[in-house]
Write a structure and sequence with these properties.
heterodimer; A: mainly alpha; 65% helix; B: mainly alpha; 76% helix; globular
Chain lengths: 69, 447
């Protein structure tokens, strides 16, 4: 059994057949998906949902305060 | 494609070993049914674990509270509906993980940037921490039935969760978690000991009735309704399943079986959730009110020592498996965002951030449970409600990713699937707004 970090050659060959190229840790570290351009409609939706979460947090805090009283 | 061996890490090799096992099973000279079963056994994991993990302590306590408060009726088919909703959502994470080989947090940060990524991480980490606290409430409640002191029970629970993650191998961790998850089925014999009326169960499933006496929109019923939705649809499930699919090394050719094992997890979890509701219906029949989380003891006169022990063990299992999966989802997300190692195939030395997030969240939540005077049942119900409220933004990001052809290629979500996911988002927003109305103006829903 090799030490961790020292893969044997036959194991490396085995990996060649079994993993997809972009499945390797090194590939994932080097290749990044680009940033997606968000349309105004999507931005409005994301902000609306963020406002919804903040509003609901206030609602829950109100209910928690009521129960604790 | 040739790749120099120095590019390989042990994480890659461990994953390749898992793929080799799968490849051999696919090529084995066995009868078709046997070969298929073997392949399915090897692929089983993320989908079953995410659903049984979501049958966690607060979820099982919500189901027990549902059975105790309302008996057999509307909530049985409603719980099945919530599981179907969860399956629609989780299926997308299988495709995302298998196609991109990247975790959910990593994809969100790469495609939408750190601003929206930070929001989703805040939602996830706060939700996970609160939920983890309730898992330890479940572990404490389960062990308390057998006379184990709270501090010892919580400490043992935390030790099991941390030790299970330290195997240095995804495969071993997954099989330990699956072994524990089987015990979620203990609610089935407990339900049988409650002697449910089969005809009434059948009628309830077909007619969605009887509905609760005060109507579905009364404050306590609405809270339980939301808690039952939150028992099946939560943000951590997205981050966990996609991370586990990547860590297991699934590829696009595994998607159909990955979808199948997620469906299996959904069916098992729905059956066990309904069993929990049925197990506590004797409390409803006899008009017994349970304060706190002590359902096992309250059911002692009706289910006997064996039945109550099954409930207590079931709660213990629910807390343990969920603590394992939820802490792992936090660790995957933290590792992906910090761009450090984030795999159970790495040792703690190779992925310190990953294991620190995992162990830290477990120890913090375990300690929080030992604070005296916390209203446990309310915390349990409110945690599931918090999960429902944080879900719509997470779902929209999921839909945007799964409909993104640049990310998904041929596996992009079709219009029907996208429509269903958007429908789920609208349903969750409306359910949250109804709850808000019931809190801010309780009389409005009865006008």
């Amino acid at each position: 059994m090799p030490e961790r970090g020292e893969p044997k050659r036959e194991e490396a060959e085995l990996d060649d057949q079994l993993l997809e190229p972009d499945q390797l840790v090194s590939a994932k570290e080097k290749v990044h998906l680009g940033r997606r351009r968000l349309s105004p409609a999507i931005l409005v939706l994301l902000w609306a949902l963020r406002a919804y979460v903040i509003f609901m947090v206030v609602v829950i805090a109100t209910e928690v305060a009521r129960v604790l009283r | 494609m040739a790749r120099p061996s120095q590019q390989l890490t042990h994480e890659d090799l461990d994953r390749a070993r898992d793929r080799l096992r799968l490849s051999r099973a696919r090529q084995a000279e066995l009868p078709r049914a046997l070969r298929w079963t073997w392949v399915f056994w090897l692929l089983i994991g993320p989908g079953v674990l995410v659903f049984i993990g979501e049958n966690d302590a607060p979820s099982m306590l919500s189901y027990l509270a549902t059975g105790a408060n309302f008996g057999v009726g509307f909530f049985l088919p409603f719980v099945i509906l919530t599981f179907l909703i969860a399956w629609i959502v989780q299926e997308m994470t299988v495709r995302l993980g298998a196609v991109t080989h990247r975790g959910h947090a990593e994809l969100i940060f790469e495609r939408f940037g750190p601003f929206w990524g930070a929001f989703s991480m805040i939602d996830l980490l706060i939700g996970n921490l609160l939920t983890l606290i309730t898992e330890f409430i479940g572990i404490r409640a389960g062990l308390a039935f057998f006379g184990v002191p709270a501090a010892l029970g919580v400490g043992l629970g935390a030790a099991v969760v941390i030790l299970a993650s330290l195997t240095g191998r995804y495969w071993t961790w997954e099989r330990i978690a699956l072994g524990l998850a089987i015990l979620n089925g203990l609610f089935v014999p407990a339900a049988l000991l409650a002697h449910p009326d089969g005809a009434a169960v059948g009628r309830a499933l077909l007619s969605w009735s009887p509905t609760p006496a005060g109507g579905l929109l009364s404050g306590p019923t609405l809270l339980l309704l939301l808690a039952d939705i939150g028992a099946t649809v939560t943000p951590w499930m997205l981050f966990f399943q996609q991370g586990a699919v990547v860590d297991k090394g699934l590829q696009p050719k595994d998607i159909s079986l990955g979808r199948g094992e997620t469906l299996l997890g959904m069916v098992l979890a729905a059956a066990f959730g309904i069993a929990a509701i049925l197990a506590s219906t004797p409390l409803h029949r006899h008009g017994v009110t349970v304060s706190g989380t002590d359902f096992a003891r309250a059911l002692l006169p009706y289910l006997g020592r064996v039945g109550s022990s099954l409930i207590a063990l079931g709660l213990l299992e629910a807390g343990l498996v969920a603590a394992i999966t939820i802490s792992t989802s936090s660790a995957y997300a933290a590792g992906e965002v910090l761009k450090t190692g984030h795999s159970l195939n790495r040792s703690p030395r190779e992925a310190a951030g990953f294991y620190l997030a995992l162990g830290g969240s477990v120890l913090l939540s375990a300690a929080a449970v030992l604070i005296p005077g916390v209203p446990l049942e309310f915390v349990v119900l409110i945690v599931n409600v918090v999960a429902v409220l944080a879900m719509p933004p997470a779902l929209i990001l999921l839909v945007l990713l799964s409909t993104d052809r640049e990310v998904m290629g041929d596996q992009v979500s079709g219009p029907w699937w996208t429509g269903a996911a958007v429908g789920v988002t609208i349903f969750l927003v409306l359910a949250g707004l109804l709850y808000a109305l019931s809190v801010l103006d309780p009389g409005a829903l009865h006008a």
